[in-house]
Amino acid sequence: MGSNRFGEIFCITTWGESHGPAIGVVIDGCPAGLKLDVSMIQQDLYRRRPGRNPHTSPRQETDELQILSGVFEGVSTGAPISLIIYNVDVDSSKYEPIRDLYRPGHANYTYEQKWGHFDYRGGGRASARETACRVAAGAIAKQFLAHFGITLFAELKQDDQFQSRLEAAVAEGDSIGGVVELRSSSLPVGLGEPVYEKIEAKLAKAMLSLPASKGVEFGSGFRAAEMLGSEHNDLFTMGESGDISFASNHAGGTLGGITSGLPLVLRVAFKPTSSIKKVQQTLSRGKEKKELSLPEGSRHDPCVALRAPPIVEAMAALVLADALLLNRCAKI
Amino acid sequence: MGSNRFGEIFCITTWGESHGPAIGVVIDGCPAGLKLDVSMIQQDLYRRRPGRNPHTSPRQETDELQILSGVFEGVSTGAPISLIIYNVDVDSSKYEPIRDLYRPGHANYTYEQKWGHFDYRGGGRASARETACRVAAGAIAKQFLAHFGITLFAELKQDDQFQSRLEAAVAEGDSIGGVVELRSSSLPVGLGEPVYEKIEAKLAKAMLSLPASKGVEFGSGFRAAEMLGSEHNDLFTMGESGDISFASNHAGGTLGGITSGLPLVLRVAFKPTSSIKKVQQTLSRGKEKKELSLPEGSRHDPCVALRAPPIVEAMAALVLADALLLNRCAKI
Amino acid sequence: MGSNRFGEIFCITTWGESHGPAIGVVIDGCPAGLKLDVSMIQQDLYRRRPGRNPHTSPRQETDELQILSGVFEGVSTGAPISLIIYNVDVDSSKYEPIRDLYRPGHANYTYEQKWGHFDYRGGGRASARETACRVAAGAIAKQFLAHFGITLFAELKQDDQFQSRLEAAVAEGDSIGGVVELRSSSLPVGLGEPVYEKIEAKLAKAMLSLPASKGVEFGSGFRAAEMLGSEHNDLFTMGESGDISFASNHAGGTLGGITSGLPLVLRVAFKPTSSIKKVQQTLSRGKEKKELSLPEGSRHDPCVALRAPPIVEAMAALVLADALLLNRCAKI
Amino acid sequence: MGSNRFGEIFCITTWGESHGPAIGVVIDGCPAGLKLDVSMIQQDLYRRRPGRNPHTSPRQETDELQILSGVFEGVSTGAPISLIIYNVDVDSSKYEPIRDLYRPGHANYTYEQKWGHFDYRGGGRASARETACRVAAGAIAKQFLAHFGITLFAELKQDDQFQSRLEAAVAEGDSIGGVVELRSSSLPVGLGEPVYEKIEAKLAKAMLSLPASKGVEFGSGFRAAEMLGSEHNDLFTMGESGDISFASNHAGGTLGGITSGLPLVLRVAFKPTSSIKKVQQTLSRGKEKKELSLPEGSRHDPCVALRAPPIVEAMAALVLADALLLNRCAKI
Fold first, then answer.
1. Fewer Cβ in 10 A, N or C end of chain D?
2. What global pTM score does this model have?
3. B122 touching A, CB under 8 A?
């Protein structure tokens, strides 16, 4: 078990609270012999970092990564890789005025009910801060995948109105949601395992473990429910190289839960950020009706999906790295 | 690991191919002392069974369940519960004519690539036949949940045109997809674990492990991406009983990946059945272009989603039973 | 979890009670492409079977194995392999007279305390009957290992007095213990994982999961505690083939928890059979002092260790098969 | 998986090399609400620390522990507890002269074969340094157990000649082995799970995962192999409090792999320290015969078993904490 753990062979454990001294991740099962480019990890952390544009949280997270183990002379040794990021610019005092209030859309109510305590400071383990560790570990998984020619790319789906909706929300002290789409390069055929470890099943778990995510779909996804079988089926054709290929990719890169060789395509829905500047009605722990206004200077993104692409890439990379290793055991 | 295994504490392992002598499931971790009503298991199997209406596969699956272990005098003993269902009415000979053809939308290509063999008969482990075992195990999980007052109900979402679309597809030898929605009764607060074992993450994995499923969403789901935070946040209110409640349930029964006490609401998208009577272009294993016509008398559903509700219930029941047990370890 | 499950990649789940209709095992993770000789499985079952010599239990276990899934045309497919053995010659009525007595050395007291019920018939899951499933699964693991040139051999250590001690015990209606030693052929270097998955750690768990086992040791084992470092260290030497070898094998085939290439050597201590014909003082569930005499015609071995060698081989085979697969993920 | 992970519910992951910047452990699954006394953790670390007496390694390990997460106001929160110990007094330069030599009894040969690299400095993950993390995590597990009235005590078994043998070994630049015995207070009945998760199986894995351990036995252990059933069986008797008790404890506190209520008794055999001052014959990586003399000032214990008691206690505590939590799921 271990609910802060993800993956089977290529397996990570993350720890740390947004308002504690540090956060970190231990990667257990990264194969030996992987040359690691630390600057690429740092770069993904930078992509995820708040404060990069006018509409992400201004919290200054320097996110300076330290590697404490598992890497010797730039190469993975087979030992667990321990990464640590110290929290800086942490100021819990701003939360004092709202310390006893249940925050709509937040985990503080359910955490209190489950564990019997109430950490009024940032979101603890529920904070998006935790995703920095996913990104760091995912950046290593990406380098592992790159060794096999696999790349991943995620981006926020933005229609024409996205920017104006975002600005309107900011102006109102409100927030909006968004959908992030991930696409991979062509994949090796055979990743994923039946029945319960289908590649979509693993990816779905990965994506729904992200804070604020509310849905995931593959290929045509929910639209497939409205299609005919004769439309949705990706017909087999001969590729240019004389290999078997497909005439379309409605399935999003899988067949029977196993990668088919086509690019993986998935989309993740993110709800609007729960923390908004707008005043909201709520209850206190004492069950009194209260108004919740976020403290002056508290820092939140008007759209969590803006920062989600590197996190979605990271989770997909972790799943694929794991599946790729596991696939080595498929045949005698 | 074990890719035919699902769950941590309340844990199942399924086995068996659609064209082998039998299929079965071993439930390891069902607590002792659960009174079991076998007829309720049989009833769920009956709900899943094909041949019940004009538009499901006419295969005669009698689905007579035998309990081989783990139950003594009608009560679970704590030992693994082994259930077996013998396959009857299996006729593999019909598949002879298409034994060398890759079937669009099917797993036979990816299975062959992964394991190096090709079982031309039914779908092997990829067959929907396997879901009978999920239903049987899920029926036991449901009885466990019922002990704690939890009930689940899934149904196919049918708009006005569903029936006519279905009939048109049948007439054309084609198939259609569908969306199944699951709702629970009120749940205990506190089920699910951060960070990677959020209740949505576990449920998402469960649902995307189902054959033909292509997406899952919770509460407002993908629509949440278009909402404002002030709309989506479920405000805390005082319930009639003096308990904390919520003014809405956009989140679908969770907060921070932990059940909030509200009913769970999720939807699963199923693609149209891959096997269709319509002729399709495909390739043979020898890479020749071929036409694929399903053998006369082969049996397929024009809409897999029709039979999915008891399977979706079963998977949700397995996840919730597991989460409920795990939650016993949350506090000292 | 799943306490009836063993192994990670090559993973088994066993089920069934000694007095139920059948016992069985599901092997999940046997690589595809393994040619299986069923008669070899049956042969190991026969080695384990009671009634083969005057001093093993006369219960007639025919142990006819059926393969229900996972094997197609004599070759493993990658799908779970389900094996079933029907129980025959089961007569629970003999246990009626002692149904309320706690049996010294048996699990019925602890099982009752843990699960709240009391199965007075054979030992349920605690019965040695369960080990037939280990032997069947282990026989498949052995065939997997044989593919890589690895063989295992276990035997009961018998000093000059063993036979006379055994006969004396039989004459007195008593029982004796024994030590089983396992030796492998040379092994590939590199099996086992630091830190908690050392090959000895996995093997120790495997051996101490056997009914009646009370200890395990590797190489010089407990005697190593009395040796000097200069005696115990196995010095590196050049082997005949120009490869690195060792001057001795005090370590029993491992270094730092990883196989060194030398044969594995371990010994398992088995306590004397708990069920004896001699009258014993005990308590009833009502806490009354009672005398326990085993029912006329009840069947027990005077020395469980006599039948243990194929079971010890099976458990070692399962551990090594798993370690061999896992080792494929060690390097990039 | 994750080979640096131990435990299921109460689950730890350790990381760090003896010659890296730090070592650490993440405890995932410690229930919320446990009041933690940090000084008790530090005290166990101090017991394990070298340099405490004339015959343990003089390496100065200050072992100052920092808690980075999971504890708020002195109480566990349910979030992962991350502990870090910085390595000080690390001097790898002494190892330069022997950097290419295979060291008898050490893991550097097998590690090199498995992962393809060679860390000539301390033992990396194979170093006894790693056990500091086990002790720290185990100290928290002990506090959890203490909450339920369970205590553990381990000590080195020393016969009359131990001290003189130790001194003789030191004088010769040699080392000796030893046996550590662990005893618990009375335990709750019911810890441990059949079949593969018997309490002895879990403990055996725990103990054989310790560096230098070569065997484990429970209760009468290997001596049980020489006993009669009528001797070894622990007869049921009425205890003073009117509860069911036992006339003896040959089984070492278990029946059928489940704790019986009696104290747990086990012994672990440790081989003599592999690193000795005495000159040894060995090979270089280039397969040349070489003499290995440990560098002047390198630090090693003449008997690793001297420092093992707190480590054995820690591992037992981790197993029992896990079993105690898991047992909450035994009954409905």
1. C
2. 0.97
3. no
